[in-house]
Design goal:
30% of the residues are buried. The protein has a three-stranded antiparallel β-sheet with strand order 2-3-4. The chain has 13 helices and ten strands. Among the domains are: 8-157, Orthogonal Bundle (Helicase, Ruva Protein, domain 3); 258-324, no CATH class. It is elongated, with a radius of gyration of 23 Å. Helix 5 (103-115) runs antiparallel to helix 6 (127-141). The protein is 41% helix and 13% strand. It is α/β, with parallel strands linked by helices.
Length: 324
């Protein structure tokens, strides 16, 4: 059963529950993958299961948070999990999604520690430290951004999932990056952790503004084959990948795939196109002019000029309105 998740639905999805859905048996990964176990490190959020850096969801989140805040948060998060009966030694396959804490629970614990703080006590935390942590995580736990991070997962069947990220493109950059990395963290666990999984990323140009995203995808592409998984990348204009500031990051994306389907390149400098995709002059000539369904297929040292023809039943699904 396909799950097409919209922006609001993605907002209810959290890393910890994702690990539950995938039935990971690695205790450290289960604890580390939780969205609630995002630690604030110099203004950035980090997914501990993959090491992927996630920009803070709001400009207030992570503001002026340094090593002391990070250490305090790690201690508080550990306490929070213990309060919910979750540690490295339990059987995670028996834990339901609703058994995990959410971001509001983390904030409640931090606020409780702050309110019961007693001057002169031998507490691990100072009053100012607890206050700054509460202020720093308030937005994503209880404030304007809480609808994106505070809640249990809504994924009930992970056999086939479509993440509809169109709505995310209209949000502020920091929130968008945090949400996209939440999705990438889920994909990474499915591709590399579980294996035997296919992930398709369409309209890849939308993600080019964040170099960490590109590096994340590139590294994932290099590793998935060892787990019998596949990453499919699709985009339209090659010019988007040849912008000088990102060219060195995107170029490996073209050399890693084993199978490549190259269609009409559009109005582009032929030399730049051939350099980026390592296309010979004779190969470029085959797709130099627009011809519907014609593409150059490359696999290793083999080259084929293909005519892609959709069966009648698929053509009917496409309709006659240009994909609309």
């Amino acid at each position: 059963m396909a799950k097409d998740l919209t922006q609001d639905q993605i907002a209810a999805m959290h890393g910890n529950d994702l690990i539950t859905n995938s039935q990971s048996d690695t205790g450290a990964a289960c604890l580390g993958a939780a969205l609630i176990e995002l630690v604030l490190q110099e203004g950035q959020l980090i997914f501990r299961d993959t090491g992927a850096v996630v920009t803070d969801a709001d400009h207030r989140v992570g503001q002026h948070l340094f090593d002391a805040h990070i250490d305090a948060l790690e201690i508080l998060v550990t306490r929070l999990y213990n309060n919910f009966g979750i540690n490295d030694y339990i059987d995670f396959s028996r834990v339901k999604n609703t058994d995990y804490p959410i971001m509001a629970d983390l904030y409640a614990l931090c606020e409780e520690e702050y309110r019961k703080y007693a001057h002169g006590s031998k507490s691990l935390f100072t009053e100012d430290l607890l206050r700054e942590i509460c202020l720093g995580i308030n937005s994503m736990c209880k404030g304007a951004e809480s609808k994106f991070f505070n809640g249990h997962t809504n994924i009930s069947d992970d056999k086939f999932i479509v993440f509809g990220v169109k709505g995310l493109m209209d949000t502020n950059e920091k929130l968008r990056n945090a949400m996209l990395f939440n999705i990438l963290s889920y994909m990474s666990n499915a591709l590399i952790g579980n294996g035997n999984t296919v992930a398709a990323i369409d309209e890849l140009y939308l993600f080019l503004s964040n170099l960490t995203t590109i590096e994340y995808i590139r590294n994932c592409m290099k590793r998935v084959r060892k787990r019998d998984s596949i990453v499919i990348l699709a985009s339209q204009n090659i010019e988007d990948f040849l912008i000088p500031s990102i060219r060195e990051y995107t170029k490996p994306l073209f050399s890693i795939p084993t199978h490549q389907f190259l269609f009409y390149p559009g109005q582009i400098n032929p030399k730049e196109y051939m350099d980026a995709l390592q296309v010979e002059d004779a190969e470029y000539e085959l797709i130099r002019y627009p011809e519907r369904g014609t593409c150059l297929y490359r696999c290793g040292n083999e080259r084929y000029l293909l005519q892609v023809i959709a069966p009648d039943y698929k053509a009917e699904l496409f309709g006659k309105a240009g994909g609309r």
